């Protein structure tokens, strides 16, 4: 039954993507981030993302909907980064393995650029945020409940066969999405909805702690610091954060504390030493080869040449050193520049959005995007998630939001419902206007 329902939803998205390709973008994002087909028996091997992506690309050229091909600093920098990865590909030390990952990264980045063309309204931004929150929140809320039920004795893992399969990776995903949940909560009117979202955010934080990820703990701390700094009442905010931290941390078992304490004694931890060795390898490789080593440089042969400890082969587990080793200093410069631009665009939304009542929601969005970016910048320093979709979706929200604000779209845009119903359902749900009797 679950497989049939999901197949029907996917079929509807593919059909709609031809006429309204922005729906295809939302569907692509949902499939790419959440991978719901991996939870079924019959759909997990089907090219669902390719079907939705193909329909969306066709719809891009035949739709009558608005399209925006304007250039801005973010999409120009992203295209330069993509171009540089194409230039470095032929110089890859392991070409076959690099080509496979290059193909996947190009598909992701292409759809990010398509999203920047198709998404333009407030409804689009809110729906995209909901897609991201639901896609990761499904695993986070469930993982938080699991952590509470087991007292944190077992680790929370991500969905299999995805970018966030590992405990460290899924923890960072939870951390990035929590501020987006807070943004949605700020837009809610109903008290029960606000309470429900608070519960979900607490469970997401518990799931991040339940992953036993040291990087997630540092990312949460960084996010908390940014939230506190952004808050109006810093004393009250500090008290609330401290109380919540004490309550949640008191629920974690001794083995969790033992693992977190290795942050102080990293020189005695084999995993930490392996990462540091991989960072040294990436640095030496980038100094020797201007194009880097290409994708997939974590191999014994490359470590034997460039690593400080040749026999200690380990993945970089860092968005920065991963890009450095694979695409050299130029690639790292483009990557860091890209997300620095996103940070300042989000800051622009936060400051300028509060000037008008109609744009206050954009101020909320910009502030929470910066909190998410802080979590990604800190947590990503210890994880290999340089090319995953979710951070690039933050870019989409920042760019589309800034474009919406600069062009004063709130003066032109009609308020539209968040949910787009198919015509046959729309007729059933719409209430008929009754003519008063004389």
Automatic annotation (TrEMBL):
Transmembrane parts of this sequence: 43-63, 75-95, 101-119, 126-146, 166-184, 196-229, 235-252, 290-307, 319-344, 365-384
Topology in membrane: Multi-pass membrane protein
Keywords: Ligase, Membrane, Transmembrane, Transmembrane helix
Domain of life: Bacteria
InterPro entries in the record: CHP03097O-antigen_lig-rel, DUF5935, O-antigen_ligase-rel_domated, WaaL-like
One protein family per Pfam: Wzy_C
Localisation: Membrane
UniProt-recorded Gene Ontology molecular function terms: ligase activity
Domain DUF5935: 1-185
Domain O-antigen ligase-related: 200-336
Protein's recorded name: O-glycosylation ligase, exosortase A system-associated
């Amino acid at each position: 039954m679950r497989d049939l329902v999901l197949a029907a939803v996917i079929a509807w998205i593919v059909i709609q993507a031809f006429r309204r390709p922005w729906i295809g973008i939302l569907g692509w994002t949902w499939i790419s981030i959440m991978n719901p087909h991996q939870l079924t028996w019959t759909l997990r091997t089907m090219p669902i993302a390719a079907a939705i992506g193909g329909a969306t690309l066709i719809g891009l050229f035949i739709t009558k909907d608005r399209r925006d091909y304007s250039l801005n600093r973010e999409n120009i920098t992203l295209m330069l980064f993509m171009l540089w990865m194409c230039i470095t590909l032929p110089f890859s030390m392991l070409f076959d393995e690099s080509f496979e990952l290059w193909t996947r990264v190009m598909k992701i980045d292409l759809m990010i650029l398509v999203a920047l063309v198709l998404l333009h309204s407030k409804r689009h931004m809110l729906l995209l945020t909901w897609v991201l929150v639901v896609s990761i929140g499904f695993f986070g809320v469930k993982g938080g409940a699991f952590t509470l039920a087991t007292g944190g004795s077992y680790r929370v893992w991500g969905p299999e066969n995805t970018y966030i399969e590992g405990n460290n990776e899924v923890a960072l995903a939870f951390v990035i999405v929590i501020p987006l949940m807070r943004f949605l909560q700020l837009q809610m009117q109903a008290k029960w909805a606000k309470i429900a979202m608070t519960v979900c955010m607490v469970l997401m934080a518990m799931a991040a702690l339940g992953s036993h990820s040291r990087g997630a703990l540092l990312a949460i701390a960084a996010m908390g610091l940014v939230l506190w700094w952004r808050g109006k009442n810093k004393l009250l905010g500090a008290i609330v954060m401290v109380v919540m931290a004490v309550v949640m941390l008191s629920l974690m078992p001794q083995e969790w504390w033992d693992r977190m304490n290795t942050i102080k004694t990293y020189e005695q931890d084999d995993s930490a030493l392996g990462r540091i060795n991989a960072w040294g390898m990436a640095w030496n490789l980038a100094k020797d080869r201007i194009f880097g080593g290409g994708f997939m440089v974590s191999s014994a042969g490359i470590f034997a040449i460039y690593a400080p400890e040749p026999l200690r082969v380990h993945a970089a587990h860092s968005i920065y050193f991963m890009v450095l080793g694979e695409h050299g200093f130029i690639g790292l410069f483009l990557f860091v520049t890209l997300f620095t631009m996103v940070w300042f665009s989000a800051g622009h939304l936060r400051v300028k959005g509060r000037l008008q009542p109609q744009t206050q929601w954009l101020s909320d969005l910009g502030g929470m995007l910066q909190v998410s970016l802080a979590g990604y910048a800190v947590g990503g320093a210890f994880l290999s998630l340089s090319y995953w979709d979710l951070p690039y979706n933050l870019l989409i929200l920042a760019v589309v939001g800034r474009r919406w604000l600069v062009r004063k779209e709130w003066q032109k845009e009609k308020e539209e419902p968040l949910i787009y119903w198919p015509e046959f359902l729309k007729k059933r749900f719409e209430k008929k206007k009754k003519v008063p009797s004389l």
